[in-house]
Amino acid sequence: MKVIGLVGGVGCGKSTAAAILEKAYGARVIIADKIGHLAMEKGCETYQQIVTLFGEEILNDEGQIDRKRLGDIVFPQPDKLAVLNGIIHPFVWRTVKEQINAAEEAGCAFVVLESAILLESSEKGLCDVIFAVTADKEVRFERLRASRGYTREKFEAIMAQQLSEKELKKQVDVLISNNGDEEALEKQLKEAVDKFILEV
User: Fold this and answer.
1) Which end of the chain, N or C, is less surrounded by CB atoms within 10 Å?
2) Is 44 annotated as a binding residue?
3) Is residue 134 marked as binding?
4) Which domains does the chain have, with CATH numbers?
5) Phi, psi dihedrals of residue 110, rounded to the nearest 5°
6) Is 46 annotated for ligand binding?
7) Predicted TM-score of the model (pTM)
8) Is 11 annotated for ligand binding?
């Protein structure tokens, strides 16, 4: 069973690409970000570590970690972001491996691992091929402003932590441009899957 790594910066459209691959090929999609969110939920083994380090001001009225409050603390401060990642990432990768094994046992054709952190991790070897979804900076900002209410300041702070397209190109097998509509994105994805998954 093949594993496609799907990477790209915030606002590039990784989730849209993953949904297309799931619908078109019946791929099993594993979203590392969602597993990272689980790591912050009350009852998870990592929850108390995060609260102890960053304080109860990151909690909402129900005692759950407010990801926006936490993000406002860590994204402008790389040292604090590194500490948070040191707690969350080991949990994420352990869970990802469990889900890949489950997909193989279920007889899935291939897995799509959507992850913003794959290239910076030591887990790239989980993937047989890596696709990077890219988009122009202003396209990304407008998407995030409309969908998540991002300010320019927050967007720039996150961008500063992420790989540039030039850096991405050195580390991936396919660059997929997502400045256009979903139809154009789907066409590029199908070409990449035909080349790297179906023809192998």
Assistant:
1) C
2) no
3) no
4) 1-27+108-199 (3.40.50.300), 32-107 (3.40.50.300)
5) -160, 165
6) no
7) 0.84
8) yes
